[in-house]
Amino acid sequence: MIEIRDLQLLSALARHRHFAKAAEECGISQPAFSMRIRNLEDRLGVSIVRRANRFQGLTEEGEMIVQRARRILDDTKALEQQVLAAKGEITGTLILGVIPTAIAFTGRLTKRLRDAHPRIVTRIETMSATAIQHRLDEGSLDAGITYGDSIGTDLRQVQPLYEETYVLLVPSHMTDETGPIPWARVAEFPLSLLEPQMQNRRILDRIFAEQGLHPDIVAETSGFTASMVMAREGLAATVIPRVLVRALGDLKDTKVLPLVDPVVSKPICLATLTRDPELPTVGALRDVVASLR
After folding, report:
1. 139, 230, 261, 275: least CB-packed within 10 angstroms?
2. Euclidean distance between CA atoms 237 and 190, whole angstroms
3. What is the pLDDT averaged over residues 152-170?
């Protein structure tokens, strides 16, 4: 009999494509992890993993088994949550993938969800819009908060959340300006921006390119925290979502300047897989989102 635990290990290996990282996520040693995968192969009578000195990928049979395993794990999770929901309580862990620009909004959304359903634990993972779409499709995320124009609606439910707009966070000593400034002026400041593979960075690069601008980028980060600290320390300016400024309040020794010419906005949405039946935790999140409108 195949154990659910073995399917969880296999799903983690397919996601990380690395034995040590998958073993760490699953909370067991790498030798024990490898032995369980080997035992699963022996039990099924097929090779699941292509091996050399390191993980080389899954075999064709392995890919098929992983797809089945993910469906079984998804059904198991749904069954556990539905049994508890039938008793009048929605409980469980909700895995939520979030683009960096939406972290502040997600914090407020999580509080609303917690107020309505105190037994739901929300696990927030920051990642790119591309990663959110991929992990939704493979079933390792329950929901994603991402750009509405970067997520397909095929087999997914999409709920609009808000329009993302942008401001310049600049050290006070770098400018005397107090009102809206054009993007052309932004390009003149030393800038700290997100890494090039992030959707937010691609949006900014497109704005600069369309205007023939060549911004002075002095640092690239995987999140906004480092860029905001650099602005506080007077080292560089950064472009951040207005919603983040609203969440954090006054930032000492900096100025927040709205950006114009052009005024840019991007739709942010909640994306979930279309499931029948729906996970109770996901249904609870969607209800909270619907109550915001």
Report:
1. 261
2. 6
3. 87
